[in-house]
Design a protein that fits this description.
The protein is mainly α and 71 residues long. It has three helices and no strands. 55% of the residues lie in helices and 0% in strands. The protein is globular and about 40 Å long. It starts with 11 loop residues before the first helix and ends in a 9-residue tail after the last helix.
Length: 71
């Protein structure tokens, strides 16, 4: 969880903390990417509905997915 009461309260630091928690969770890289992608998509949609004022660039950079290598 991001630890905020509403979408309007989310900051770039919150997103960076969430990304750090996901990437250190021990999940497979593909699962980490999926979790970050889901939040990125939700924040993109909610921004279009006026849910928050974070820039698209901030969301994209703060929630960038880890590289997944295919063996």
């Amino acid at each position: 969880a991001l630890g905020v009461d509403s979408l309007h309260d989310i900051t770039g630091a919150d997103l960076a903390s969430y990304r750090a928690a996901v990437t250190s969770s021990g999940l497979a890289a593909s699962s980490q990417s999926q979790a970050l992608s889901a939040l990125r998509s939700f924040l993109t949609w909610s921004r279009s509905m006026g849910g928050h004022s974070l820039s698209a660039q901030l969301v994209s950079v703060a929630l960038r997915a880890p590289r997944v290598s295919v063996a």
